[in-house]
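Appendix B. Raw example, untouched.
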Amino acid sequence: MRNKPFWKEAPLLRLAVCLMSGIVIGDHFVVGWPLLLICVIMVVTALLLWKHEHLQSMAISVCFVVLGWLLMAHQKTSLQVVWPEGEVSYEAVVLSEPVEKPKTMAVDVLLTESGHKLKCYLYKDDRSRRLRIGDGLQIQSRIESNSDWRKGSFDYRRYLEIHGFTGRTFVASWKWQKTRVSLAHLSRLERMRLTFLKYRSRLLERISAQGTDADAYAVVAAMALGDKSALTQELKDVYSVTGASHVLALSGLHLGIIYTLLSLFVFRRRWQVLSQLVIILSVWAFVFLVGISTSVVRSAVMLSVYALLSLGHRDRMSVNTLAFTAIVMLMVSPMSLFDVGFQMSYMAVLSILLFVPLLECVFTAEYLMSHRVVRWLWGMVAVSLSAQIGTAPLIAYYFGRFSCYFLLTNFIVIPAAMLILYLSLVVLLVPLLANLLYTIVAALNSLLAQIAAIPGASIENLHPTKIQTTMIYLIIVAVYLLSVKLTCIRANARYR
């Protein structure tokens, strides 16, 4: 057990919380250049207080609050685009596979001149269905600002802003055509991202050509390459009710599997620095391949820090490391704080880091070392319970649901996810094994559907308010602190 509270072992956690506080303030109050002046003054003040540790610590905390406020104000300003009245003609490049709606085909497009990203709704026809990532379009339409549509706790405008969309457009079938477009005005990062997305599209076509089960293909595409466009609402509901949705969203579980696999094939002992560099570059290439989603970037940053610290044999996975990744991501994109994926990802990992050591104390280390099966089973239970503690309030708030059989589900889906991911990589090289892969995925889908059909599989229509959700987390923190205190008392009594 740790001798000090986690907040003293993780000084970066306080800075991450201060940065988040500033972002929340900046979301409600936009201030101009005076905020930059305040930030400079606070930095100078922090430097001058080097002889006063506590005062300097307070000044640095205020600096991060002001910095978060400033970054959020800047990002909100960059997303406020005034579109011209009436129809305009422009060139764009397709960033996503078409998603079928009742009357339209929805695609994400990037304007090649300005770099702005739009939600584009094309009237449904054979041409729009055949669009692929990387296709150039010549469009004439009216571009609208993001709408304020809401449904429950879901804010569509906020969703679009978080993902970088500055507007939307509805395009008639006779007002667009495919054409060659120049990408010279786009940043090198955007061009590289587009190249990886086109390569992912080709890999998805190769996988889909090997099977006929649409649901099985949808799960493989989501788990292996991060494309969830083929998932039906019924399939999403099955995974949600059973508490298995986390395996469909690429996260630390998937990157951890890839990191472990790569570690088996590199020359680790003689050239450790070079091997870790090769692994991390491969991991980041995979991040670009699957579309740079929030949870994957968080996992990649943590794995990069993990690899760096492993060279110095330091504590590689800690609350401090998690806080560092949060600071990095929020500095790059402050609005990520309001992304459901960001919140769920970080709360799950934070809860695992805090609660797993407590749950491991239920059995003595000697007992677990001598009973490997119990150690594996209890390790799975500890991680699943810890992640559920951290994410259950958010799931109830955003989705109004609590999955009652999540422990049973995790014993099934986590080993299955490892097998599916490994087989997916093999199928890309040996297509003849595709039938085996689709058979395993179909069996998993069928088993989860049976679990979802069990009475009491989930508690529905919860929808706590923001205040109630906050109170639940305060109770969780109180229980955690009490558990730490009791564990320390028991440990001290044992050594008397």
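End of appendix B.
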